[in-house]
Records
---
Amino acid sequence: MKLRSTYLLVSHGSRDPRPQRALENLGQLLSQKLANSFPAVATATLEFGPAPLHEQICSFGERTLSLGLTQLQILPAFLLPGVHVAEDIPAEVETAQKTLGSQLKIALRPHLGSQEAGLTRLLKNQMQDVAFLPNLLLPKWILLSHGSRRPAGNSTVEKIARELGAETAYWSVQPSLEAQIDNLVRGGQQQIGIVPYFLFNGGITDAIAKNVAQLKQQFPAAELHLANPLGASAELADLIGNLIQK
C-alpha cells in the first residue's frame, strides 16, 4: 500500500515498562499490516512519557513532514471512552496542530474500544484458553474492566458482557469483582472465569492476579480462573487498522 500518512498509536502510559513494550510490538504489527516501514508508525503516551503528548505529536509530525507526507493520524489505544479519550487527547492534538500549523493535517481517529464486535471476538478467544474442570457445572464468566465514572462510560463494557453472556465487574467503580463473585457463589456457581478487559499486562493486571489469589482463599467452594488480558497480537492490530482513514 502506498504510504499516504503516518500513524501514532497513543496509550495511557505507565511507570511499568511492560505496557510500553507491548505497545511498541503492536505498532510493529500494525506497520506490517499496512505494508509500511516501521518509521511510519510510532507510539506515544498521554502520561509518563518523555514529554507532554502534544510535544510527542509535534516531534512525530516533523518526521512525517520529512517523509514528504502531510497527514498524521492519531490512533488512541484506549478501551473506554473516558475523560482521556473525550477531553485530554483532543486537547493535546489541538495544541500540536496549532504548533505545526497548516503544513500538516492531524486527524484524530476513534478509540480502539469503538471496535466492539472485534474486541468481543478477541475476548472470546481469551476465554477459550482457560481450562475448567469437566465434572462441575458450566462456568460463569465475569468481564472485569477498569471502569469509568463518566455517565454511560461503561456502556461498551456492558454491551460486550451481554454478548459474552458474562457479568460485569470493575476495578475502580462498583460492582467490584468480590461482590460479583459473592453473588455467583451464593447462587451455587462452582466455576467462575474472570476475563480482564485490559490491553496489556502491567501493574493493574498484577494487582488483579493478587486479588484473585486472595478471593480463592475467601471463596474455597468455587474454582476461580483468571484469563489473560488482550495483549499485542496481529488480530488486535487488525482492529486498530480498521480505525485508519484510508
Note: The beta strands are 6-11, 41-45, 71-76, 105-108, 140-145, 167-170, 191-196, 223-226.
---
Amino acid sequence: MAVAWDTPFESPRQAVRLDAIGGRYDPWLLGVSIALACFGVVMVASSSIAIGEGLGVGPFHFLEKHLVFLGAGIVLAGWVMRTELKPVEQAGQWLLLACFVLLLLVFVPGIGVSVNGARRWLNFGLSNFQAVEAVKLLYIVWLASYLKRYSEDVTATWPAMLKPLGVAGAMVVLLLLQPDFGSSSLLLAITAGMLVLGGVNMPRLFGPVLVALPLLAVVAIAEPYRYQRLTTFLDPWADPFNSGYQLTNALMAVGRGEWFGVGLGASVQKLAYLPEAHTDFILAVIAEELGFVGVCAVIAAYALLVGRAFLVGLRCVEMRRHFAGYCAFGIALWIALQSFVSIGVNLGLLPTKGLTLPLVSSGGSSVLMTCAALGLLLRISYELDRAQRQVARLRGDAAAGADAGGAQ
C-alpha cells in the first residue's frame, strides 16, 4: 500500500522509520587512522629504546607511556564518536571560554609547569598536559559554529570577519608569552583557511593578512634563539656541533636510509646522536630505517587522511550541514599543516618548530587530542552517511508513492 505524504496519521510512522536509519563511519578515515596509530607504536618503540636507557628509566618507558596515552585517546575518541553533533555545536561559546582558561592556567603557579624555559604544560598529577593541544580542537569547533551562525555576515561585512581574527590574535598573544611560536603560526593558518573555506571575501581578508605577516616576521626574529633557527636551517653544516646539531644529524639519518632504509630498528642516529628522536624528529628515524619508500608511504597516508576529511567536509556543506563541514575542514587543515611542518623540519626544508607528527610521534597531549579530533571527524562521517541514507529513503518512498498514485 502506498504511503500518503499528506495523511497526518501516516507521517509519524514515516518519521520513526527515518529516525531508525543508522549510519556508518567512513571506512577510509577509520582505516588510515588505525594504520597511522599502529605504525606510531612501532616507530616509538624503535626510536625510544636508546633514549630510555640513556635516561635510566628503562628501554620501554616511552613506549609504555605512549601506549597509555594512545589507549586513553581511543577511549576519548570512542566517546566523541557516540556524541551527537548538535549539543557540541550549541556548546561553542563555552568551548571558546575553555580555550582562554587553558591558555591562562599555564601561568598559574602550581598548575602551570615550566620545561626548558617554556610554560606550556599543566600539571595533572600523573602527567603534564600541553594546553595548546586541547585549544586547537576546541577552537576549531567554536570557529565552525561561528561560521555557520554568521556565514552571510562573514562574507559581506568587516566586523563579522574580524571577530574570529581578533579571537585568534588574542590566543596568539597568550601563546607567544609561553612562548610557542609554532602553535601560534598553526592557529593563525587554521583560522585563515577556515575563513576562506567558509566563504569570506578574499580581497577583504588580504588586508589583515598583509598586516599580520610583517608582525609575525618581527616576532620570529625578535628572540635570538628564533633568529638562530631561521638562519641555521639555511646552512646547518656551518655549525654542525652547536646550532646545527639537530638538523645535521636528522639529514644524516635521512641520507643514510637511501631508498629502502637500513632496516627496522637498525638506526644509528637514534643512539644518542639525534635529539628528540622519538618526538619531533621521528620522521628522520623513519627515513633511516625504512628509506625513501617508507617516507613516501607515511606522506601518502597523511594525504589520504586529509583528502578524505576534506571530501567529507565538502559533502556535508553540499547537504547544508555547515557546522559538520566546517569542523571537518578545520581538522583536515590542522592535521595537514602540522604534518607538513613536521616533515619539512625533518627534511631540512623548514626551521625547527617543535611540532610532533600526528599519531606517530611520542607525546601524550598530542596523541590524546589527535585521537579526539579523529573521533569527531568519524562522528561527522557517521551523521553524513545517516543523512544520505535518510534522503535516499525519502526519495525512494516519494517515488513509490508517485508510482502508486499514477497506477490508481
Note: The first helix runs from residue 11 to 19.
---
Amino acid sequence: MAKMHEFVREEIEPLVRLSFGNDAAETGSTERLVKEIISNSRGKKLLGLGAVLRLSPEEYEEGLFCWKGFLYFKWSLSNIAGELALVIAGLETVKPVGPVDGEAREYLKRGKAVLLQLLKGCWAQTRQTLGVYEEAYSGLTDRGDPLIFRDFLLRAPSLFDSLGEQLGAIQHIISFWKHRFGPRSTPPSAPELIDIFMDFESSLQVRPGAGQ
C-alpha cells in the first residue's frame, strides 16, 4: 500500500499543481487527493475537474472509477515487467523429461511458438492500451488540453475492461509459472507441459486484442 500510495502521488502531482499551483505540496492538496483516489470514495474533491471537462455527473463518476483502475494497472504492469521477462525466457528453454512421442513433440514445438506469440502480443496490447491513457493525461497536464483527457474518460470503461482482462491473463501465467517452476521444482513430463501450454494459450486467446 505504501508503494501504491507513492506511485499515485507522483502520478497525480502534475494535475494537482495544474489545479492548485506550485504550492499544492505545502497545502497538502496532493496527499488529500491521493487518499481519495486510493479509497472507494466517490471523488467529491475531484468534482471540479468533471465540470472543467464538461462531463455529466454520471459520465464523470464512471470515468473517474476507470481512471483509478488505470492507475492501478499502470502500477501493476511496472511491477511485473521483470517477472514476465523471466517467464518468457523460461518458456523458450523449458523441455519435458521422460518419453516424448512424435505427436507430443510436434505439439510442444508448435504450442510453444504460439504461446510465446500470444503472450508477447498480449503484453504489447496492454502497453498500447495504457499508452492511450498516458497520452491523454499528458495532453491535460503538459499541454493544458482538457478535451483529450475528456475523450479518454468517455472511452475509459471499454478500455478498462479490456486492459483488466489482459493483465489478469498475464498475472495468472506469471503466478502459475513461479509456483510450478521454482528453484527446487522438478522438470515437467510431456503430458504436464502440454496441459500447461493449453491452459496458458486458452487464457490468452479469450483476451480482446491478445496477440494482435
Note: Confidence is low (pLDDT under 50) at residues 207-212.
